[in-house]
TrEMBL record:
It holds the Pfam family oligo_HPY. This is ABC transporter ATP-binding protein. It is a peripheral membrane protein. Keywords: ATP-binding, Nucleotide-binding, Transport. It comes from Roseovarius spongiae.
Length: 328
């Protein structure tokens, strides 16, 4: 089955500073927030995008939604190139690609009722439907009683607001949902409820989901595959369970070790990364992770690593991986 979404060699740039200032300083006027990223997602599959703040996750989401233009590379949705789509075409595409924003209460208009919020996408896209019946159907689908339609966002708990966000995202029967930090700010028990809901929606509706998160528990709970981002690049990609069991990239190892684990032995093995992620405005020479890598050798500062395939759908970029010989 060919992927529903195929991204190839995507590069997204932002202005580094004012153009005149950049020219005066002899600096590059733009920098790459996303640098040569490729991935695909099939219908019914969930891909997790993980990385520290500033690694470029939201920029990928914004580019897929047509809110930011790609500098180069290709984005194909259902076989169609969409990276150069017009604003009108993107407006149509939003029926098929839905976004679940990070802050559900903040992203829901405070003056609209839940009923109006959930059915607003139908109105925007001129879809004829019995809105009251659609609202009931969507609320029931996400486990909320129909009488929630009369409530306002401030009357919802965090978990209920997240459910309304899911219902709204599903209103137009999308084929791809981009979920930005779907559990941020929720208690552990509510997080599990929301994740179960997403997993259930995916199985029931066969949609593809791209989950963007810092939270590795979220990734482990609902994704089939994961991509670890550092400075706008993927440093490791592969099946989620495989990476959790045997990561190859030292950055992945450090992220996994920092994940809260009930097992005290695992907690002792926590790796603390030195310093902060460098700025993509001034990329380090060689391997871009070398300044923070506990295994770095002189060669790492000199030469950027290429992509190494390590078994089915598993790949990484590191000169001295921690996973041993390829299991391909
Ligand atoms: N509008 C913008 N103009 C200039 N630089 C930007 C803009 N938006 C993001 N950046 C920069 O691009 C890089 C990637 O940012 P991005 O928000 O995509 O990262 P992220 O991984 O989603 O972070 P977070 O988890 O905090 O949302 C960062 O260096 C950020 O400072």
């Amino acid at each position: 089955m060919s992927p529903l979404l195929e991204v190839e060699n995507l590069v997204v740039r932002y202005p580094a500073m004012g153009r005149v200032r950049a020219a005066l300083k002899g600096a590059e006027p733009e920098f790459e927030a996303v640098a040569d990223v490729s991935f695909g997602i099939k219908a019914g599959e969930t891909l997790g995008l993980v990385g520290e703040s500033g690694s470029g996750k939201s920029t990928i989401a914004r580019t897929l939604m047509g809110l930011k233009r790609a500098h180069s590379g290709s984005i194909r949705f259902d076989g169609r190139e969409i990276s150069d789509a017009s604003a009108q075409e993107y407006a149509r595409l939003r029926r098929e690609i839905a976004m679940m924003w990070q802050d559900p209460v903040g992203s829901l208009s405070p003056r609209l009722t839940v009923g109006a919020l959930v059915t607003e996408p139908l109105k925007i896209h001129g879809r004829r439907a019995d809105r009251r019946a659609e609202c009931k159907r969507l609320l029931e689908m996400v486990g909320l009683p129909a009488n929630f339609a009369g409530r306002f966002p401030h009357q919802l708990s965090g978990g209920q607001a997240r459910r309304v966000g899911v219902a709204r995202a599903l209103a137009l029967d999308p084929r791809l949902v981009i979920a930005d930090e779907p559990t941020a700010g929720l208690d552990m028990s509510v997080q599990a409820e929301v994740l179960n809901l997403l997993a259930e929606m995916q199985t029931r509706l066969g949609i593809a989901i791209l989950v963007i998160t810092h939270n590795l528990n979220v990734v482990r709970h609902i994704t089939d595959r994961m991509a670890i981002m550092y400075l706008g690049r993927f440093v490791e990609t592969g099946p989620t369970e495989r990476i959790f069991h045997a990561p190859c990239h030292p950055y992945t190892e450090a992220l996994l070790s920092a994940n809260p684990e009930p097992d005290p032995d695992a907690a002792q093995a926590r790796i603390t990364l030195s310093g902060e992620m460098p700025s993509p405005r001034r990329r380090p020479e060689g391997c871009e992770f070398h300044s923070r890598c506990q295994y770095a050798r002189p060669e790492c500062a000199r030469r950027a690593p290429g992509v190494t395939e390590h078994g089915p759908q598993h790949a990484f970029t590191c000169h001295f991986p921690i996973c041993g010989p390829s299991a391909a």
